Every structure is written in structure tokens, then in C-alpha cells.
Amino acid sequence: MILDGKKIAEEIKADIAARVDAIVAAGHRPPHLVAVLVGHDGGSESYVMSKAAACERCGFRSTVMRLDESITQRDLLDKILALNSADDVDGFIVQLPLPAHLNEREVLEAIDPRKDVDGFHPVNVGRLTLGLPCFKPATPLGITMLLERAGIDTRGKHCVILGRSNIVGKPLAIMLLQKGRPGDCTVTVCHSATPDVAAEARRADILVAAMGRPGSVTADMVKPGAVVIDVGTTRVPDATRERGWRLRGDVDFDNVAPLCSHITPVPGGVGPMTIAALMYNTLQAYSV
Ligand code: GUN
Fold first, then answer.
1. Looking at CB atoms within 10 Å, which of 69, 141, 192, 265 has the fewest?
2. Residue 207 lies inside a defined structural domain of this protein
3. pLDDT attached to residue 57
4. What residue's CA is closest to ligand 1, atom 6?
5. 67 is in which domain, residue-wise?
6. Is 179 a catalytic residue?
7. Which atom from ligand 1 is nearest to the alpha carbon of 94?
8. What's the pLDDT at 242?
9. Would you say residue 19 lies in a domain?
10. Domain of 39: which CATH number?
11. What is d(CA 64, CA 24) in angstroms, rounded to the nearest whole number?
């Protein structure tokens, strides 16, 4: 069964839009999300444009702050401090990756945790780890929303996550480990130093592929009946497309899909759910 992230994301955005309509009808301003984009990375440009389109769908105001590739660390930090104190900005994100001369960690730590709708600030990461209310990173939040809406109970399941990044693998592991629903999983996180990734993966009731290596999860790595979540979005050359590329997931979809109980497609799975989760966080930022 295909987990239709595009459809479920659309349902979530429709729910948010209805709430925003009521807010605006009551005489209040709509929520406002700002996306900071430094330079011209192709992937980042298209992510930011999708986020802006989702804001429009939800009735939010959105602003894309485009900054020159050559901006200094000091000038970028000043922009962030200004967004922190702007009363008409509820939440903002700094699209990653940043150009190499900028210090990403210092930039993320400058964001006011109350406006950190990406959930990347150490205060939000710490609160997530402790199970306290916080902004949860959009990709793991989108994945748990997808599981929930698809009626997939996580309690007691063995979840194996391939990839330990700060924006997907690590926070998802924490969320699925947490007491409650979604949560109550036994979690294994695999990474580049894991001796036998295939053997670990085969034990998964829920397998999450987030390494960024296209097609690398093959049928022999999947237990029959498993739920497979594909976070990969690598651009691979495709001469049949006008733009010359297509998105490819980390899972060898054609051979893995017949084995699974549920699987997410790429595109149309986790990607749209990530954006819906960011919209959810932005409405939260507005409400508190
Ligand atoms: N780059 C890749 N994913 C993300 C994300 O979720 N947020 C931001 N800000 N940058 C990203």
C-alpha cells in the first residue's frame, strides 16, 4: 500500500487553512513565515518556493528573504536578530545548507527558540529529548504525522533508522523512542560505522531510509510486511525530463514495494509531509 504523502499533506494544509480563515474572520492578522535563503543552491531554491506556495495554500503571509552568497557571518546574524525582534514575524527558517564560509551552528543558535519553526535550536532539541513541548523538526514530524494519519501504530514496534543526521535520523529516533503515541518504539539507528546495515534493517517493522544514497535499500534488506519510509530526495540525471533530472529515493522502490505492508513514494511521500509539518509548526508559533 502506497502511503500518499501528497494527499495527506493536502488534508493537513486544508485543516490549517480553515483555522486561519477563522483567525482572520475574527479580525486578526494571519500567521507569517519568513524563509531566509542564502545564495543560489538549486535544491534550496525549490524547497523554499514549495514552502512559500504552501503558506499561500494555508492563508499565511510568507516572505522569502534572499541574501547574497557572499554575505558575512556578522551581517547574517544581524538579519536573524532583526527577525527575532520583528513583531509581525511568527516563525522563520534559515534554509540549509549554507555557503561554506558561514558557521551554520552559530547561525542556528542565534534564532529565538520561540520562532525556530525548524526545531534546530539546541533549546528545542533539548526539550524534544526531554519530552517537553517544543518545535519538532519538520521531516521527522511529517513522518510521524503520516504514520498516525495512515493508522500505523508505532507502539512496541522495532524501528530501524538508516542515517543519523541532526535534521532527520537523530530527532526521529528521539520522537519514536518517546513514551506515548506516536512513540513507544524500540529504535535502532544505523550509520556509516555500522558493521552490517542489511542485517539490522531486516529486523525492522518500520524501516526509515535517510542516508541520501539513491536506491541503496534493496529487497534483501526488508522484512516482508514492513513499513518502509523513504526520506531520500537525490536529483539523478534523467534525459526523458525537460529539466534533465528527477528525484530518486534511498529505496529501490520497484523491488522493495511488493514486500512491504506500506511504503512512501519519491516524490509524493515524505517531501510534502515535511512542508505540511512546517506549516503546522508555523501555526503553533503564531498561537503561542
Ligand atoms: N535543508 C534540508 N532540509 C531542511 C529543513 O528541513 N530546513 C531547513 N531550514 N533547511 C533544510
1. 192
2. yes
3. 98
4. 138
5. 27-112
6. no
7. 9
8. 96
9. no
10. 3.40.50.10860
11. 22
Of 219, 166, 222, 174, the closest CA to residue 191 belongs to 166
C-alpha cell at 164: 543519523
What per-residue confidence (pLDDT) applies to 14? 98
Residues 174 and 261 placed together within one structural domain of the fold: yes
Residue 235 counted as domain residue: yes
Among 247, 249, 245, smallest CA distance to 217 is for 249
Q: How far apart are alpha carbons 282 and 141 in whole angstroms?
A: 13
97 and 57 share a domain?
yes
CA 49 to ligand 1 center in whole angstroms: 13
CB neighbourhood size of 88 (10 A): 9
Residues 66 and 161 in one domain: no
Is 95 one of the annotated active-site residues of the chain?
yes
Distance 138 CA to ligand 1 centre (A): 8
Q: Which of 118, 205, 250, 252 is catalytic?
A: 118
264 and 194 in one domain?
A: yes
Into how many domains does the chain fold? 2
Report whether 134 contacts 105 (CB < 8 A).
no
Domain of 164, CATH number, reads: 3.40.50.720
Verify that 179 and 76 share a domain, yes or no.
no
Residue 288 has pLDDT above 90, yes or no: no
- Closest of 9, 8, 30, 10 to residue 19, by C-alpha: 30
pTM of the model as a whole = 0.97
Instruction: Write out pLDDT tens, residues 93-118.
Output: 999 999 999 999 999 999 999 999 99
User: 205 an active-site residue?
Assistant: no
Interval 46-76: pLDDT, tens: 999 999 999 999 999 999 999 999 999 999 9
Same domain as 187, residue 251: yes
Residue nearest to atom 4 of ligand 1 (CA): 96
Polymer length in residues for the chain: 288
Q: In ligand 1, which atom is closest to the CA atom of 44? A: 1
Q: Choosing from 4, 13, 79, 95, which is the catalytic residue?
A: 95
What is the per-residue pLDDT across 196-245, written as a single tens digit (0 to 9) for each? Answer: 999 999 999 999 999 999 999 999 999 999 999 999 999 999 999 999 99
Residues 90 and 160 reside in one and the same domain: no
Pocket around ligand 1 at a 6 A CB cut-off: 93-96, 118, 138-139, 167
Identify whether residues 106 and 167 lie together within a single domain. no
